[in-house]
Design brief:
By secondary structure, this protein is mainly α. The protein contains ten helices and four strands, in the order ααββαααααββααα. The radius of gyration is 21 Å and the shape is globular.
Length: 344
């Protein structure tokens, strides 16, 4: 759903840029509360994983494909504020290095793909875990539903933005119907990827899943005929080796997905591209400012073998994203530890 340059006019692009900047400022502050010494390294890895999986377009209808947006996955794994930052780092890397998503439309893309998906998904997720049984399976089920709903929500948000600042005269009703219809199908794929990933992390390190915190049921003891909460046991310390193993496994998985599996991704246009072509939204699309980038269109310039070119580009993208994301979250974490302790 990467919006290219020329789809949205300058005033609305600027307005969404202000919205995005404000949301990022709030998210930076909120991420200081969400991140600790265990989860800060995971956040950079989540950004790299989202980058990798976004390269894996899957078919959803005749001539149309979809890919992960990642807002739900990031919010549930590392928290909503950190999740907004994760997806924003991915969008920034894609826009600058790979000419994917317009630079003047960066505010639109962050607002739509990072903010809307994360906020909607996490709101739905928290609502569900409050009413579902307090189990790990409930977290996975809630993840599925939250991710499913976040994608058509982003499609609706794009339609509203286009209604305010679209550069072509098209029927907004038709755009809304087409966008929401195809993105409901894409949402099923998003939901499956999100639920599988969250379930896999919960199976090995539930303590690292932000959305699973506080869901353990308290043990009850009968004292003098009354049930009382048992004392909370201190969690067993987890060896640093366990953190490194999970991080290494996640990084290798991301490299394999982006460097090898992406070659087999669907070549059909994604939901927005298909709707834009069918409805005439793309009539005033502009060439990307980074169209001549050495990594434009997820290929390495002057490498003629398509498999090698795409694989190298994917691996470079994962590497750059994990470094950029890890740097951002390391700085955020340092800012938190550097603040004076609050009393009360």
């Amino acid at each position: 759903m990467h919006v290219p340059d020329g789809f949205i006019n300058a005033p609305i692009s600027a307005a969404t840029g202000v919205v995005a900047a404000g949301a990022l400022a709030v998210s930076l502050k909120g991420a200081r509360r969400e991140l600790d010494e265990r989860t800060a390294p995971l956040a950079g890895l989540v950004a790299a994983f989202i980058f990798a999986v976004q390269m894996l377009n899957f078919p959803v209808a005749a001539g149309t494909s979809g890919h992960l947006l990642g807002g739900a996955l990031a919010a549930i794994l590392v928290g909503p504020c950190t999740g907004v930052l994760c997806v924003s780092v991915v969008l920034l890397m894609q826009g600058i290095l790979f000419a994917d998503g317009g630079l003047t439309a960066l505010g639109v893309n962050i607002t739509d793909m990072a903010i809307v998906t994360t906020v909607v998904a996490y709101a739905v997720f928290r609502g569900l875990v409050k009413v579902l049984p307090r189990t790990r399976r409930s977290v996975t089920v809630a993840s599925f539903v939250a991710a499913l709903l976040s994608v058509p929500a982003a499609a609706l948000a794009f339609t509203l933005i286009y209604a305010l600042g679209g550069t072509t005269d098209v029927s907004i009703g038709k755009v809304a119907t087409a966008m929401i219809g195809v993105h409901v199908l894409i949402g099923i794929g998003e939901a499956a990827i999100t639920a599988l990933t969250v379930g896999a992390v919960i199976a090995v390190r539930p303590d690292l899943v932000h959305g699973a915190r506080g869901l353990q049921q308290r043990l009850k003891l009968r004292v003098d005929g009354e049930l009382v909460d048992a004392p909370v046991a201190e969690p067993a310390p987890v060896a640093a080796r366990s953190h490194r193993k999970l991080w290494a496994t996640g990084l290798v998985t991301s490299l394999v997905l982006a460097g090898f599996v992406s070659f087999y991704a669907s070549a059909s246009p994604d939901g927005l591209e298909k709707v834009a072509a069918d409805q005439g939204i793309d009539k005033k699309a502009e060439e990307h400012a980074s169209a001549d980038s050495p990594l434009a269109d997820y290929g390495v310039k002057d490498v003629r073998n398509a498999r090698l070119s795409g694989g190298l580009a994917g691996a470079i993208g994962v590497g750059v994203t994990v470094v950029a994301g890890s740097t951002v979250f390391w700085v955020v974490r340092r800012r938190r530890t550097g603040e004076p302790a609050q009393v009360g």
